[in-house]
Write a structure and sequence with these properties.
By secondary structure, this protein is mainly β. The protein has one helix spanning about 5-30, and strands at about 45-50, 60-65, 70-75, 80, 95-100, 105-110, 115-120, 125-130, 140-145, 150-155, 160-165. It is built from one helix and eleven strands. The strands form three sheets. Strands 1-2-3-4 form a four-stranded antiparallel β-sheet, with no helix packed on it. Strand 2 and strand 3 (about 70-75) form a beta hairpin. This is Lipoprotein LpqB beta-propeller domain-containing protein.
């Protein structure tokens, strides 16, 4: 004699196991462990491409928390966001930030007339400037030296990815550690 298991019983077991599985998934993914607020690094939005200043005080990253792709600067010591007026322009995408030693300079990729360019934001003057207006082709992954004088990036102007080094010149204001001595370049 063959025992017949009712289908209804099996369907109810699957139904309850799905409910408990989804409930446990929601509880484990709860945002209670992540501090969310105006002074928190993490939010309910995507944050990516973090970079740390040389002194370890500032972190810059790309976020879409305000409805646009922008670079935010966070002070780890004060645990607050740093205002960066005129860094993020409306209708543009900013990405791949790089910080100098004290976080004075931020090198990043943005768009100018539909093509990527390397830009530099100076927190002291609160202005951005495009460093690569004449480069043809694609540009990516900028990185600024700790003192802020040199910016390196990848360029595809010759049909392959090459490393470019941009010297901002000896007359710029350097971002140096407090109390450090400055030796002039040879």
């Amino acid at each position: 004699m063959k025992k017949i298991t009712p289908r209804f019983w099996l369907q109810r077991q699957i139904h309850w196991s799905l409910i408990f599985g989804l409930a446990s998934l929601l509880i484990s993914c709860s945002s209670e462990n992540i501090p969310i607020g105006p002074t928190s690094v993490n939010s309910r939005y995507t944050e990516a491409q973090p970079t740390l200043s040389g002194n370890g005080r500032f972190v810059a990253f790309v976020s879409n928390r305000n409805g646009s792709h922008q670079i935010l600067l966070y002070d780890l010591q004060q645990q607050t966001f740093v205002r960066t007026p005129r860094l993020n322009r409306p209708e543009t995408i900013a990405e791949s930030p790089s910080l100098s030693y004290n976080g004075r300079y931020i090198a990043y990729i943005t768009s100018d007339q539909g093509r990527p360019v390397v830009a530099l934001y100076d927190r002291a003057t609160q202005n951005s400037q495009i460093l690569t207006p004449i480069y043809r082709g694609w540009i990516r992954n900028p990185n600024i030296s700790p003192n802020g004088r040199y910016v390196v990036f990848e360029s595809a102007s010759r049909g392959q990815w090459d490393i470019e080094v941009l010297d901002r010149g000896p007359n710029i204001e350097l971002d140096i550690p407090n109390g450090a001595t400055i030796t002039p370049p040879p």
